[in-house]
Amino acid sequence: MTPATEFLDSAALFRVVRSDDFTGLTLRQRRLLVAAANYHALDSADAEVRLRILIAGPGRAAVLTHPFGDAPPSASDATEAGRIEVTVADAPTRQVERHVIITPDDVTPQPPQLGLRARYWRARQQAERRFPLAYDRLRQTLLSRRERHLSTTVIERASGSEIIEELAGVGPAASSDPVVIVGMHWLELGGAESWAIETVRAVVEAGILPVVFTDRYSEHPFITADLFRDVVVMPFAGEVPAAGIGDEPLRQIVERYDVRGVLVHHCGWLYDRLAWIRENRPGVPVVDSLHIVEYAGGGYPATAVHVDPFVTTHHVISPELERWMTVNQQVPREKVVMAPLVGLTVADGPGPTFSPRPDRPFTIAFVGRFVRQKRPYLFVRLVARLVRAGVPVRAILHGSGELEEVTRERVRTAGLDGVVEFRGHDHPVSGTLADADLLVVASQNEGLTLTTIEAVSAGVPTLSTDVGSQRTVIAPSLLVSRDPTDFLAEATSAIRDLAGAEAERERAWRDELALLEALSKHQAASAWIREEVRGWLA
Would you say 40 and 250 are in contact if contact means Cβ atoms under 8 Å apart? Predict the structure, then answer.
């Protein structure tokens, strides 16, 4: 039985004392309002919390978890949408006031940056915008050095955590209502995010309430999915330092409910608190999912290795990452499960068939977040080079993210407005793949991309940089260098050949299908996590 009630089409852990009418807000805004109310009600668990709900002014960021009574700076040009009073206490002993600022739906995510950090990133972005190719070459040189270091260095294991001292302990759970704690990056488009959401779905299907914490700034467009009607979400976003953020809500969840498990998906905040959880609930299983070794320090796999004493199972999605964990980092093999994301977003039915090219220009697609790792700038340069080479080409850029504005500017500057089409998260990826003759992965680093699996399953071959475990599913003829200059030369040559020879395109796809079928002999991640979660009900 779920401990949550429904309010504004969302799962709520609080009791509403009084509320204005918020039906004029969009579904995303209403669900973020409830998410913020869940957070503040648990953060001040002995209080009646009076929330002033504001809609952000132009260019302003969301502020969902501002912990003080005074209004954050961005409230000055915000529009009030209403007020709501909530509590989780049977008999509140005090009253507190908080401000929640929610953005309109039609904004590009712009995380707040303050002080020296903001100035550093502005300078770095200006350099990258003016000299993208030179900047990328320098980055590849640094990445190569870090790769060598991470392949030869065993990461030190943690023996404890300062969070244990900062967070008060808890006694036995106050109720038998089962919950699973889930840590995520954000609720946005992406392969890792799609998998994280699938694990949340597995928890819901098992009859357990997921409590999802996200620790990265986002507009959280995926919170509108039907699934999140039955999920408690607490996203962190504000204009104050993050020290201590979320600690009291987490403590309240562990103290009030029967925690049956913990799932960690690219959430540094929750990794930092695993030692505290395991000290207070020693028998709780902790499972993390890992996708990619980030060569700026190792990223989440490095963090996972560091906190390995507090994790019961590491799930990895590729053979390459399995080797890195068990061989390079000496994690016991019995703690590592390799379960690929095959079939995750592909409907059951007949096996994949090749998608013949219709009578139109050769169409290449980029699908993913507009961030530095994915290098949308390089995809735009590739399109421009193909046009100059006389290849009749059309391109689709499908995604969103912090580099969307600059990517659109690059397309305009290159005179490619009539060649490149932009698509957002409101357009299904399956539709983009149906319109494409080739998926292009231009990333500087990856694990094993979900979009590659989706493309091959849709009958479309993929050209990719030789990064991570991509060679597990990419035909040798379509595997290209990640060096930006070499990438442009090799990708242009390969696409020119494919555009003029449909038989070669089909042969490449059949090579990739064979590789995917070999990978699919491993148990699929979706089946594995459902078995795992069902075991938590015992």
Answer: no
Element (H, E) at 264: strand 258-265
* Cα distance between residue 437 and residue 451, in whole Å: 14
Cα–Cα distance between 110 and 233 in angstroms, integer? 21
Q: Which residues are paired to 183 by β-bridges?
A: 213, 264
What are the φ and ψ backbone dihedral angles of 180, each rounded to 5 degrees? -120, 130
Structure tokens at 283: 């028998």
Model pTM score: 0.86
For residues 511-533, b (16+ Cβ closer than 10 Å) or e, as one string?
A: bbbebbeebeebebbbebbbebb
Of 14, 20, 22, 16, the closest CA to residue 38 belongs to 14
- pLDDT tens per residue across all 538 residues of the chain: 457 889 999 999 999 999 999 999 999 999 999 999 999 999 999 999 999 999 998 888 889 988 878 888 778 889 999 999 999 999 999 999 999 999 999 876 555 555 555 565 566 666 666 777 777 777 777 666 666 666 678 888 988 665 666 677 787 787 889 999 999 999 987 778 989 999 999 999 999 999 999 998 889 999 999 999 999 999 986 544 456 788 999 999 999 999 999 999 999 999 999 999 999 999 999 999 999 887 566 789 999 999 999 999 999 999 999 999 999 999 999 999 999 998 776 655 567 899 998 889 999 999 998 988 899 999 999 999 999 999 999 999 999 888 899 999 999 999 999 999 999 988 999 999 999 999 999 999 888 998 999 999 999 999 999 998 999 999 999 999 999 999 999 999 999 999 999 999 999 999 999 999 999 999 999 999 999 999 999 7
- Alpha carbon distance 441, 353 (integer Å): 21
Q: Please give the order of strands across the beta sheet that includes 438-441.
A: 420-423, 393-398, 362-367, 438-441, 462-465, 479-480
Q: Measure the CA–CA gap between 222 and 520, rounded to whole angstroms.
A: 28
- Supply 139's token pair: 């980055």
Closest by CA position to 180, among listed 214, 199, 205, 203: 203
Helix ranges, 272-366 (H): 274-280, 299-306, 319-323
Q: Which two tokens stand for residue 209?
A: 């309430």
Q: Which CATH number fits domain 362-519: 2.60.40.1120, 3.40.50.2000, 3.30.70.380, 3.40.50.300?
A: 3.40.50.2000
Residue 144's CB is within 10 A of a number of other CB atoms, namely 12
What is 168-340+525-535's CATH superfamily? Glycogen Phosphorylase B; (3.40.50.2000)
Residue range(s) in the chain whose domain bears CATH number 3.40.50.2000:
168-340+525-535, 362-519
With b for 16 or more beta-carbon neighbours within 10 A and e for fewer, the 69-95 pattern comes to eebbebbeebeebeebbbbbbeebeee
Give the Cα separation of 184 and 182 in Å (integer).
Answer: 7
The amino acid occupying position 346 is V
